[in-house]
Design a protein that fits this description.
The chain is α+β, with helices and mostly antiparallel strands and 135 residues long. The protein has one domain: Hotdog Thioesterase (Thiol Ester Dehydrase, Chain A). It is 20% helix and 35% strand. It has 3 helices and 5 strands. It has a 5-stranded antiparallel sheet.
Length: 135
């Protein structure tokens, strides 16, 4: 839906690796969350502001494909795009690169809910994320 891609960089800390010296698989979802938070911040709508306006975005589905392992001190770039916006749901897509090599890709679906957990439309603030140019 949008061609606007946000870029976030993270250097893998030792604590994120497992006994084999590679990033533990669940940490990729943490990297997705970090990139998603930065996307919102860069767009001028940090998550705290969304919550203050009564909009919460719980993850209702997550998927990740692991192509190559990341290791301690690797510099990773997470590219994030808002790709679908439905009535009370939105999808974010992620690609993780080490240099020019794509090592993982995935997505998360989020419900748009009120503080009481009721479905609600995301409003114009989030709709704007699904338009625009690369940053």
């Amino acid at each position: 839906m949008s061609d606007r891609t946000f870029h976030h960089t993270v250097r893998v800390p030792y604590a994120d690796t497992d006994a084999m010296g590679v990033v533990y698989y669940a940490n990729y979802l943490v990297y997705f969350e970090m990139a998603r938070s930065e996307l919102l911040r860069e767009a001028g709508i940090p998550y705290g502001r969304l919550e203050a306006e009564g909009l919460f975005l719980p993850v209702i589905e997550a998927h990740c494909e692991y192509r190559r392992p990341a290791r301690y001190e690797d510099l990773l770039e997470i590219r994030t795009r808002c790709t679908e916006l439905r009535r009370a749901r939105l999808r974010m897509d992620y690609e993780i690169f080490r240099g020019d090599e794509r090592i993982a890709a995935g997505y998360t679906w989020h419900a748009c809910v009120s503080p009481q957990g009721r479905a609600r439309r995301p409003g114009a603030m989030l709709a704007d994320l699904f338009k625009g140019e690369d940053t």
